[in-house]
Amino acid sequence: MKRIFILLLCLCVMLIPVRAATSEKLVALTFDDGPSGRYTRKLLEGLEERNAKATFFLCGYRMEQDRSLTQRIFQEGHEIGLHGYSHKPMQNMCQPDVLQELKKSVSLLPEGCEAVFLRCPGGTCSRCTCQAAAALGLSLAYWSVDPRDWATDNADAIEKEVLNHVQDGDIILMHDMSGSSVEAALMIVDELLEEGFRFVTVSQLAAHKGITPVPGTIYPRFSQKN
Asked: Is 7 a residue whose pLDDT tops 50?
């Protein structure tokens, strides 16, 4: 009788449905306006120590000034997106001018690096901008969390603003142009890693959410595809 009871108990356990694992929380940390020399190098060192990946929206003229740092960003597994060549606002540019800005930046990308996303300087664009991006196969990555790190040197305030708003699928906008921004970024990474988030590139975030970015389309974040 005891053996039968144990056998029935084992069968019951086997029939209990296994609960699916909780979906992984993913976030994309992005940096505009670089590369900026020592700040970008410090950021890369910190990201490598934490095994976190990011997306860098680089200005063409800065890539031209520091080819080796641009190459390092790519070699260390981060994504490079376009931020225009001159960092001039694109919303009032005609399509040929936008194309010239983008093509000039593309020509400066490291060998083997293909940009998937454009982020317009200042976040302003027009129909011509979207059409030019689409012509080059580029989607537009915007953001859903903006701590306005460029407007303060208070790293704690920057970190708090992000932590108060960040959710799975978000794209965080930051800049690798000051010590406070870099400090805040690494603090954010440390805290969110403890909370179970994983840092991926924008392209990886889209792929994990089952979304194929459409050229010329603006994406502020990536939610799970239904």
From this structure: no
